[in-house]
């Protein structure tokens, strides 16, 4: 019994470095389209298959991780601005002193901050991908 647990643990330990990290950039787009294409084919949805196949062809022909990084950089600036706006709105609501309005503005700020954090993570992964390709 102990040998089987040890062998299983060793297998997981050895497999750890082999397990792929989630795809980023064009690879992620390609993977999502391939998955959706497979699903559409399984449901015999010919129109969706045709559209997804065209999208996949476009990703394979034109997708550029550097361009996706630039778009992510632009989106980060936009999201930071949105967080600043939400923070200002919250501060105004606090001055007014209405608890229900404060709660709503806080929720909007929390949502904007979550979106910003998610994009920062995505941007970091894209930046690492692009930097690795440029080495």
List keywords for this structure.
135 residues, Methane Monooxygenase Hydroxylase, Chain G, domain 1, mainly alpha, 2 domains, single chain, elongated, signal, DUF1090, Protein YqjC
Strand content: under 5%
What count of structural domains?
A: 2
Unreliable spans are: 1-18
The N- and C-terminal alpha carbons lie at a distance of 48 Å
**Helix run count:** 5
Biggest sheet architecture: none
N-to-C order of helices and strands: HHHHH
Tell me the CATH architecture of the largest domain: Up-down Bundle
Tell me, briefly, the overall form: elongated
Beta-strand segment tally: 0
Helical content, roughly?
Answer: over 70%
**The CATH topology of the largest domain, please?**
Methane Monooxygenase Hydroxylase, Chain G, domain 1
- Mean pLDDT across every amino acid position: 89
CATH class of the largest domain: Mainly Alpha
Q: How would you classify the helix and strand content by structural class?
A: mainly alpha
Any overview of this molecule?
With 135 residues, this protein is mainly alpha-helical. It folds into 2 domains: 21-63, no CATH class; 64-135, Methane Monooxygenase Hydroxylase, Chain G, domain 1. It contains 5 helices and no strands. α2 (26-42) packs antiparallel against α3. Mean pLDDT is 89; it is low at 1-18.
């Amino acid at each position: 019994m102990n040998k089987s647990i040890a062998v299983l643990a060793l297998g997981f330990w050895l497999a750890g470095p082999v397990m792929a990290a989630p795809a980023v950039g064009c690879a992620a787009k390609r993977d999502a389209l391939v998955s959706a294409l497979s699903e559409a084919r399984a449901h015999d949805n010919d129109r969706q298959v045709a559209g997804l196949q065209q999208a996949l062809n476009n990703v394979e022909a034109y997708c550029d991780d550097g361009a996706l990084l630039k778009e992510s950089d632009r989106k980060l600036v936009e999201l930071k601005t949105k967080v600043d706006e939400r923070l200002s709105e919250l501060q105004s609501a606090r001055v007014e002193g209405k608890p229900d309005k404060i709660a709503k503005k806080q929720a909007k700020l929390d949502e904007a901050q979550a979106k910003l954090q998610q994009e920062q993570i995505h941007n970091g992964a894209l930046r690492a991908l692009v930097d690795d390709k440029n080495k």
